[in-house]
Amino acid sequence: MDVVVDAGRYHHGDLKMSLLNEATKIIRSEGEAALSMRRLASQLGVSRTAAYHHFADRDELLAAVAAEGFRRFDDSQCMQTVIDVPLTRDVLDLFARRYLEFADQNRQHYDLMFGSKIWKAGVVPAFLKEQAYASFKRYVDTVRRWHDEGAMHATIDPLRFAQVSWSTLHGLCRLLADGVYLEGDAAVDGISETLIDTWWVYLNHGASSPA
């Protein structure tokens, strides 16, 4: 049964999503520091009691925004580029570029998804861990499928390649978001091209044997 709160303006499920959406708007326009449960409730015209019914505190709300970011990533063109698709150099190239695009177009979510404010602040909510690990597992499973299909060198560890490739893309995203070192589309395109070339050689030939 739907539970109506605050003079019937919201049903139970609607209010939770409205809180998430409004929190995202505040973070996008003014930054995460501007967000408070008091302000959020006020802007939606509900009581703080109603807001706290869904989120125990501000930290839990931020974790929920981060979890929503991972859900958006799962549904994004980035992941759709590789799910159930054979491995080719063009697929890798498109995946990398769409990963960068997702991070750029969803910076508020991305910062919370991977930022220390949540992951090093204390106890990470189980729902966020579950969503985050499930997102990465989808990518790992994809790389393992490519390996099983013989699309990469047999000596390559699929998990390690997934970890390294994901981490490399994340590093580029952070440099872009922070304005460090990378300037302009030409630099990003050049680095992306070199990155894919490096991956492709490795995937086809495996790691060099120690001398």
Structure described in brief:
The protein is an all-alpha fold and 211 residues long.
Order of helices and strands: EEHHHHHHHHHHH
- In the residues, how many domains can be counted? 2
Assign the CATH architecture of the largest domain. Answer: Orthogonal Bundle
Largest sheet: 2 strands, antiparallel
Poorly predicted ranges (pLDDT <50, ≥5 residues)? Answer: 1-7
| CATH class placement of the largest domain | Mainly Alpha
What proportion of the residues form beta strands (DSSP E)? under 5%
- Compute the CA-based radius of gyration: 20 Å
Mean pLDDT: 88
The tally of strands reads: 2
Report what the structure shows.
This protein is an all-alpha fold and 211 residues long. The chain has 2 domains: 52 residues, Arc Repressor Mutant, subunit A; 141 residues, Tetracycline Repressor, domain 2 (Orthogonal Bundle), CATH 1.10.357.10. Helices cover 72% and strands 2% of the residues. It contains 11 helices and 2 strands, in the order ββααααααααααα. A two-stranded antiparallel sheet has the order 1-2. The chain is elongated and about 60 Å long.
